[in-house]
Specification:
Helices cover about 35% and strands about 20% of the residues. The protein has about 210 residues and is an alpha+beta fold. The chain has a domain of about 150 residues: Cytidine Deaminase, domain 2 (3-Layer(aba) Sandwich).
Length: about 210
């Protein structure tokens, strides 16, 4: 049984009208550079390493988005890439696409009081590094997807023929770029587990090394 107050018909009509207006206006689902810069997005310690690693791992072409999850030490925990469908830029559609990829590659952190992992987005596109409305829609989508998956919203990075650019920070570089060959894998990952010590196997290895 549910208890509560039923909204008035006028309030319901007003809410429905607001939702319909928002749904019909994709421009409402994008972030301007000033809004993004004021959102307190955490800075990457080594953005070139992150960009180079994702570029080497996924080898993106134009219209390819790469969403990656980093831990507190900026080690890569999961990543996924997909190609954007040819349709008008809409933050809501981008949010849904990013959220679907995040749910596929890593469990959510919604039970935590504060996020401990950060999601970053690398988008390979045509044009130069200047902000576009498409970038604004990706920013909106990334922020919303992170909220729904219990992650901290991290950097939004564009990759063009001119190089890479962390929007809102002013940091970038010429390589990698949309046309460059993948560089040696550089994204920090969790170290491989050390071999166990002790036991018969360790004794055999010790004797072999002593010969």
């Amino acid at each position: 049984m549910t208890f509560g107050f039923a909204p008035s018909s006028a309030a319901s009509m007003s809410t429905s009208a607001d939702l319909s207006a928002a749904s019909a206006n994709p421009l409402a689902r994008m972030l301007e550079p000033a809004e993004w810069a004021a959102a307190g997005i955490p800075l990457l310690r080594n953005p070139r390493e992150v960009v180079s690693g994702l570029h080497s791992r996924h080898r993106p072409g134009p219209a390819t988005a790469i969403v990656a999850v980093l831990d507190a030490d900026e080690r890569l925990r999961a990543s996924a890439s997909f190609t954007r469908r040819p349709a008008p830029a809409d933050g809501w559609m981008f949010r849904n696409a990013l959220l679907a990829q995040l749910r596929r590659v890593i469990p959510h952190d919604l039970r935590r009081r504060t996020p401990v992992r950060t999601a970053v987005l690398l988008y390979c596109r045509e044009g130069d590094a200047r902000w576009t409305e498409e970038d604004g829609a990706w920013m909106w989508g990334l922020r919303d997807a992170c909220t729904l998956h219990g992650l901290r919203c991290g950097a939004y990075i564009t990759l063009t023929r001119d190089g890479w650019q962390v929007l809102g920070e002013g940091r970038g570089g010429r390589r990698p770029n949309a046309d460059s060959s993948p560089e040696p894998f550089a994204t920090s990952e969790s170290p491989l587990p050390l071999p166990r010590t002790g036991g018969a196997a360790s004794e055999v290895l010790r004797r072999a090394a002593a010969r």
